Structure formats: structure tokens, C-alpha cells
């Protein structure tokens, strides 16, 4: 390449880089190009914006008075700028109003049902507490009855033991008394039994004697008091 052309290319490249850098700096600083020192005269002045005269404001009340559209139509037309962003509705304004009323009615019914369920739940809880209280009372009463039954049973057993002990002592006493009637004449023993003891006591004394001796005394009783001997014989047989 020719040396002159090479230097000329270098010069053009340097000027281009300098120009781009200067313009970039000017844009970043925000200074208008026509106000830049040295180069401002190479850029045209911006045209002044024409002042727009204030237009006369429309009479709103007059326009409203002359507007014969229904409220539903005005509502429908007022949303027309948004219709481009809305899906088409399958319900009219009246149908939407009816749906809203039905929804409110249904919500009121659900609220009433919820309150009724809450009241029913409270009643069930109160009933459960009442049953729990009754169960506690019945359990306490059952324990009390069981304790009383155990006490009565213990008293019965003690009374039975006392009765048996008393009967044993009485039997031993009659056995001792029978020793008096074991010896001697049968007529003397019969007379003593008739004069001192009733048929039941006499029968218990005779039961403590040997069978032969008891028969002798009963025969003597029959001889001494025939009218009373039957009672003594019967009491002896029941022992």
C-alpha cells in the first residue's frame, strides 16, 4: 500500500474515533447538542412547541340531561375500553344481579346452618357433661352400696358366729344340767322336769341324756301328768 494512503486511513480512523467518543460523552452528560461549545453551531435549534389554546370545556350537566341511555347500557358502554382484555360474559347485568342475590341468600342460609350446628354441638356437649355427672354419681352410689353390703355381710357373719357360740354355750349348759337327771329315780327326775322346766327346755335336757334314761323319764312324766306328757313327748321328738 502507498504510504500516503496508509497515513490518510490512520487519520480518518482517528477522527472517527474522536467524533464517536465526543458524541457519546455529550449524550451521557445530557447537554443538548446545539449548546455544546465549539460544535453547537453545527446543530439546528429545536422548534418551540406551539401553545395549544385551551379548549372550551363541555357542559357536563347538559350532556347528562340529553343522555337517554339506561343505567345498564351506560355501565356496559363504560367498560367498553376494557372489553379487549376481558373474556365475553354469558350473563347479562340482570342475570348477574340475580346470581349475586342468590349467592347472598345461600351464604345467609349457610351462616344460619352453621350457627344451628354450633348450638347443637353446645347442647351435645352439655348433655355429655350431664351424663358424665350422672355416671359419677351412680358410680359413687354403687360403691357406697357395695360397702354397706360388705358391712352387713360382716355383721351377719359375726351374728351367726355369736349365735353358734351362744347355742354351743347353751348346749354345754344343758349337758351340765343333764348330769343331775342322769342318776336317781326316774320319777324324781320327771317330777323336777315338770315342776321347773317347760317342754322345750325339758326336751333339750333329755336329748343330752342317754336314750334309755330319757325314755325312762318320759314314761315317768306320762305316769305323773298324763295331760301334759304329750307336750313333753312332742318337744323331745322335734329335737
Map the helices and strands.
Elements: H1 3-29, H2 60-66, H3 71-78, H4 93-182, H5 186-196, H6 199-207, H7 211-224, H8 226-237
Helix pairs in contact: 4-6, 5-7, 6-8, 7-8
Descriptive notes:
There is one protein chain. Residues 49-55 have low confidence and may be disordered. Among the domains are: 95-182; 184-239, no CATH class. Helix 4 (93-182) crosses helix 6 (199-207) and helix 5 packs across helix 7. By secondary structure, the protein is an all-alpha fold. It contains eight helices and no strands.
Distance between the termini: 168 Å
Q: Helical residue percent?
A: over 70%
The best one-word shape is: rod-shaped
Radius of gyration: 68 Å
What structural class do you assign from the helix and strand content?
Answer: mainly alpha
Contiguous runs where pLDDT drops below 50 for at least 5 residues: 49-55
Q: H/E order of the elements? A: HHHHHHHH
How many β strands by DSSP? 0
Q: What proportion of the residues form beta strands (DSSP E)? A: under 5%
State the major sheet: none
Mean of all residue-level pLDDT scores: 77
Number of helices: 8
Amino acid at each position: 500500500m502507498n504510504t500516503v494512503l496508509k497515513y490518510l486511513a490512520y487519520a480518518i480512523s482517528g477522527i472517527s474515533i474522536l467524533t464517536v467518543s465526543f458524541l457519546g460523552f455529550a449524550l451521557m452528560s445530557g447537554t443538548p447538542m446545539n449548546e455544546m461549545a465549539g460544535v453547537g453551531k453545527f446543530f439546528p435549534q429545536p422548534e418551540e412547541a406551539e401553545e395549544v389554546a385551551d379548549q372550551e370545556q363541555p357542559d357536563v350537566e347538559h350532556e347528562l340531561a340529553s343522555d337517554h341511555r339506561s343505567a345498564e347500557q351506560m355501565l356496559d358502554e363504560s367498560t367498553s375500553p376494557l372489553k379487549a382484555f376481558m373474556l365475553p360474559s354469558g350473563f347479562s347485568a340482570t342475570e348477574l344481579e340475580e346470581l349475586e342475590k342468590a349467592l347472598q341468600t345461600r351464604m345467609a342460609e349457610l351462616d344460619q346452618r352453621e350457627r344451628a350446628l354450633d348450638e347443637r354441638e353446645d347442647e351435645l356437649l352439655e348433655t355429655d357433661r350431664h351424663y358424665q355427672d350422672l355416671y359419677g354419681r351412680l358410680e359413687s352410689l354403687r360403691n357406697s352400696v357395695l360397702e354397706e353390703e360388705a358391712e352387713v355381710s360382716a355383721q351377719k357373719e359375726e351374728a351367726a358366729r355369736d349365735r353358734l357360740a351362744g347355742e354351743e354355750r347353751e348346749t354345754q349348759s344343758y349337758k351340765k344340767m343333764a348330769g343331775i337327771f342322769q342318776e336317781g329315780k326316774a320319777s324324781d327326775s320327771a317330777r323336777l322336769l315338770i315342776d321347773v322346766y317347760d317342754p322345750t327346755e325339758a326336751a333339750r335336757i333329755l336329748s343330752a341324756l342317754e336314750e334309755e334314761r330319757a325314755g325312762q323319764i318320759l314314761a315317768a312324766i306320762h305316769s305323773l301328768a298324763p295331760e301334759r306328757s304329750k307336750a313333753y313327748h312332742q318337744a323331745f321328738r322335734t329335737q
